Amino acid sequence: MPRYLLFPGRHHLLTRFQAEYLRRLATDSGDTATAGGGGGGGGGGVTVVWAVTSANHENTRRNPVPYHRREAAIERFSVLTGLRSVVVPVFDTAETDRFAEVTLKNVAAATGRELTPADTVVACSTPEVAAMYERLGFTIAGVEAEVEPTPARPWDVLLRLAAGDPAWRELAHPATVDVYRRYRLDDLVRAVVNDPVVGDEGGLTATRDYRTYAEAFADAAQRKWSAVREHVRPGRIVDVGCGAGAVLELADREPALRESDLIGVEVARHLFEECVHKKAQGFFTNPNVFFYRRNVLGGAVFAPRSVDTTLTFALTHEIWSYGDRMASLRRFVQAIYDHTVPGGVWINSDVCGPDGRDRTVRLRLSTEDGTNPARPRTDLASLPPEEVAAYVGGLSTRARLDQFAVDYRFPFTYRPAPDASGAVVEMTLGDAMDFLTRKDYTDNWLSETREQFCGLEYADWKALLADVGFEVDPASGPSRNDWIVTNRLAPVAGLSTPDGRPLDWPVTHVFLVARRPVNT
CDD domains of this UniProt entry (predicted)? Predict the structure, then answer.
């Protein structure tokens, strides 16, 4: 007679159907625990082993609810149903056909129970997962999959919640409704599932290599902090889009900021988890260091007039690119203004479009530094990242422009320059610089081609900040990264007017120190 019911799943939401099904299954398999004995009570009978998968994930579309809240709901569920339960976290793994073995090993490590086909029935409604346990000899109870008509599955109920359908409360078990209400998880689920930017796994794009980004943030941290240090106002200091927290590590070392709160906000799960790990490992000496996982496009993060200094590095072009361009950027700037104390400051460092970005220029590109296929590929999204990097990296600069035009999500036009070789094209200056400043990011090509660097020029920035209410400090201004010009642009490209007069390379970056007036 089975002693255990193994119930693997993400278990973000529990349903009334599951309660009746598990209670009936436990009764059919043997005497269940005494009603009211609940979550871990003693006595004989069947124990439900909840293997909570993706236990290390939260705040993503696929896994919106953190493990400890899922565990709380399961324990509450067990009390209300009279089921004896043990709850085991199973961390996310790469896709594998040995998932069943991995789960069983997690159960053994966490509880000391070696579940076998002789003493365990597996409750699972996902055919692909159930098949893995069947291959090991386990009997399968199909849960929703064995009932006609098929009851609402937990994920379907969760999506009803996200869509604003109040009927989810009638389908969800009271334990879930109670825990969701007490911890406001319904609001969290709606925000995460309906997020217009963040993907299923908690990043901006599925193709981004966050290890590369974290290393780049760390390498540039000292330069960034040196640029902003003198403009930082002590108090509540927030780094929005903080990456792996490298700049806040430097702020933490400043004696003048030892009484300040240092707060990092990051949307990408991989980077946020690194911030939390650093704090746990003692990277920060200031006890008032906090990290939040938020998408700033989702609305206000901080209360009005509560932040003294806001830092943003290489962020605003992402808001422009992944949101609704100027409309999204303006909402973000307004949110920064609203949460800034009178006299407080927002310091923004990012890429920038050239002055006169809409004027037509001639762009000469090398055809000698790589291959020149007859036509660009249209299937890069189907290839592994390393193959994408190898292919794009092998193209000449001129051929890379053709590939960029295919993959770039902001359409632009260009044409061969009259009376010139195919290596010379005519296009707007802004589009030319968007390509030239992106052409060498082959390791993250499909991610970089989703972003626009040159959407705003410096005059646009000044107008936007003034319109919202900020005063632009004289320390602000555009600049040109001469290392990029010397090492990336000049060796393989040249700019001229349509009539052939050479043009100097334009600005590439902007540094903004925006203050909220004291009397506002």
Answer: AdoMet_MTases
Helices 185-193, 154-162: inter-axial angle, 10-degree rounding: 90
Helix (H, G, I), strand (E, B), or coil: what is residue 187? helix
Longest dimension (CA), the chain: 91
Is 171 within the bounds of a domain? Answer: yes
Rg from Cα positions in the chain: 28
Q: d(Cα 466, Cα 394) in Å, to the nearest integer?
A: 45
Specify whether the CB–CB gap between 150 and 144 falls below 8 A: yes
Average pLDDT over residues 105-124: 96
Q: Dihedrals φ, ψ of 179, to 5°?
A: -65, -40
For 227, list phi and psi in degrees, rounded to 5. -70, -35
Q: Provide φ and ψ at 462, rounded to 5°.
A: -60, -40
Q: Which residues pair with 351 in a beta bridge?
A: 509
Residue 159 sits in which domain range? 4-27+44-194
Q: Are the CB atoms for 454 and 433 separated by under 8 Å? A: yes
The answer on pLDDT for 92 being more than 80 is yes
Q: Which of 190, 182, 185 is nearest to 164 (CA)?
A: 190
- 315/164 Cα distance (integer angstroms): 31
Whether 90 is in a domain gets the answer yes
Domain CATH for 122: 3.40.50.620
Phi first, then psi: what are they for 191, rounded to 5°? -65, -45
Q: Which residue has the tokens 């979550």?
A: 39
**217 pLDDT more than 90:** no
Does the model's pTM come out above 0.90?
no
**Helix, coil or strand: residue 9:** strand
Distance CA 14, CA 171 (A): 9
In a domain, 118, yes or no: yes
Cα torsion 128, 129, 134, 135: sign: positive
CA distance 2 to 28: 10
272-281: long-range contacts, CB 8 A cutoff, minimum separation 24: 274/214, 274/244, 274/245, 275/242, 275/244, 275/245, 278/244, 278/245, 278/249, 279/245
**What residue type is assigned to position 502 of the chain?**
P
Residue 89 within a domain: yes
Helix, strand or coil, per DSSP, at residue 81: helix
Number of domains within the chain: 1
C-beta of residue 348 within 8 angstroms of C-beta of residue 476: no
Report the alpha-carbon distance of residue 447 to residue 408 in Å, rounded: 10
Q: CA 175 to CA 72: how far, in whole Å?
A: 9
Q: Quick one: angle between helices 127-135 and 99-111, nearest 10? A: 70
Confidence of residue 120 (pLDDT cuts 50, 70, 90): very high
Say if residue 421 is exposed, middle or buried (CB neighbours under 10 Å; 0-12, 13-18, 19+): exposed
Q: Where are the beta strands (DSSP E) in 62-137?
A: 84-90, 120-123
Q: Please tell me the distance from the alpha carbon of residue 119 to that of residue 135, in angstroms, as a whole number.
A: 16
Give the phi and the psi of residue 306 in degrees, each rounded to 5: -120, -5
